[in-house]
Amino acid sequence: MSDTHDRGAFRAEIPLDAVEDALRSVERIARGEPDPEPAVQLEVDGAVAEPGAEPGEVERLRMELELSQAKGREVMEKLRAEHERTLRAAADLENVKKRAAREREEIQRFGIEKVLRDLLPAVDGLDRALASAPAGDALADGVRLVRASLEQALGRHGVTAFSAMGERFDPALHEALLQVPTAAEPPGTVVLEHARGFKLHERLLRPAMVGVATAAPAPDGGAHEG
């Protein structure tokens, strides 16, 4: 009888802890509590390996992550360098625009400087004609009108005349043609003016041609009587 029972029975040796785990699981299910299965994950520098992954697979994922991070850093460096080059190019372009604008303005203001300088001897001739004309000369009035008209035309292009008479000699504005010994004015004073000076806007177009006072020689005392 016992032999018949042994031949029809299934026997298996189950560890005690496994039985206890199974009983606890049944009790949780009976109470309506979830019975989650523990998930084993391996995390390598932010990359998660599947449960049960082989050590070689984890190492491969780690190497792929490091390679991806290295490429990301390389791309960021390239983007940063390209951004800096773009900023420098934009700054260079802005400087070129400003320089071109200054040059254009310079040409507009001073481009006719040579032509205007060639007209100044005509103004000098009119000045000398008026200086030598007798008082009340009707012709001098006509010359004076011509000079005024010419100076107005020059003024429309930024030309202004200035006189140096009575001024302290300034080599930046005056050109000394001769020295005039005199006691009437302090040495270094402009006492003669051969031609007026002219400016084009704020730039000197031509200096005034002048004579400058120097100290008068001491008077000769003569010979002593014996």
Topology:
Layout: H1 2-8, H2 16-30, E1 42-44, E2 47-49, H3 55-110, H4 113-132, H5 138-156, E3 159-162, E4 174-181, E5 190-195, E6 197-200, E7 203-206, E8 208-214
Parallel strand pairs: 4-8
Antiparallel strand pairs: 1-2, 3-6, 5-8, 6-7
Helix pairs in contact: 4-5
Concise overview:
52% of the residues lie in helices and 17% in strands. It is α+β, with helices and mostly antiparallel strands.
Care to describe what's here?
The strands form three sheets. Strands 3-6-7 form a three-stranded antiparallel beta sheet. By secondary structure, it is α+β, with helices and mostly antiparallel strands. It folds into two domains: 44-110; 113-214, Head domain of nucleotide exchange factor GrpE (Nucleotide Exchange Factor Grpe, Chain A, domain 2, Roll). The chain is rod-shaped and about 140 Å long. It has five helices and eight strands.
Feature tags:
226 residues, alpha+beta, Nucleotide Exchange Factor Grpe, Chain A, domain 2, 3-stranded antiparallel beta sheet, 3-stranded mixed beta sheet, 5 helices, 52% helix, rod-shaped, disordered C terminus
**Apparent shape:** rod-shaped
Total DSSP E strands: 8
Over all CA atoms, what is the radius of gyration?
A: 53 Å
Order of helices and strands: HHEEHHHEEEEEE
Main pleated-sheet profile: 3 strands, antiparallel
